[in-house]
Amino acid sequence: MSSSKGPAGRSANAADEGLDASTGTGLTGGSALGTSTALGGEPSNEEVSATVTKGYAPEVRERLERDAKEIIGRYPKPRSALLPLLHLVQSEDGYVSDDGHEFCAEMLGLSKAEVVGVSTFYTMYKRKPMGQYHVGVCINTLCAVMGGDQIWDELSEHAGVGHDETTPDGKVSLERLECNAACDFAPVMMVNWEFFDNQTPASAKQLVDDLRDGKELSPTRGPKKLCTFKEASRVLAGLPDGLAGDGPSANGASLEGLKIAKAKGWKAPEA
Hints:
By secondary structure, the protein is an alpha+beta fold. It has 2 domains: 7-119, no CATH class; 133-228, Glutaredoxin, CATH 3.40.30.10. It has helices spanning 35-38, 45-49, 58-72, 82-93, 98-108, 112-119, 141-145, 148-159, 201-212, 229-236, 256-264; strands at residues 133-138, 165-166, 172-177, 189-191, 194-196. The protein has a 5-stranded mixed beta sheet with strand order 2-3-1-4-5. The longest helix has 15 residues, at 58-72. The protein is globular, with a radius of gyration of 21 Å. The protein starts with 34 loop residues before the first helix and ends in a 7-residue tail after the last helix.
């Protein structure tokens, strides 16, 4: 994943991030872990499960904690589960909210400052609510040459929103993406991380209009069902939706080299 801003780009205002003014640890009165643990000591899984978050409603908290415990249990050290837990809270709120930061910190025995530092480093963790359908336009080299920049300019004007902004109806948000690793289908767009290949300004605008009108759309490759942004975040948290093997993962230009190799009898060198 690419980084939108490094540590130097984080807010310097402790009050803005909800940090403890005297220690800078981000601890809250609801934390069941000691200050020494929050400053870097590794808690046991028993300590992790004993923490309490104030922000989420009890039924939401119960569900999130159940999923979080499953995720944390996959790692020998709880703090290693921070990235998937950030996706988990994003699947609840549509972005990584302040409640989400608190939840992750308390579940993993980290300071809130540590959690915020990570969530603001990666572009996939959003700092404000995203649309039901998050549309990414690749503007990296090959896509740009093939028309990605023009697609972005026209689509942004058409939708009336810019980078990481959401339409007033809450249906669509837009993002300028650096690379989707799909250069053979340039210019490429993604909707909730599913591919829409070989786009034009006209097809991109129609795609967004259809999403806002509630029409059912299928990605070019992958599952026939287009999930929501929150559903995609849940999958990225490591909680599968059962659609990973649905639909073709490669076709068209991606397979041309393989076809030529088979026709000419080419094989990889023996190990």
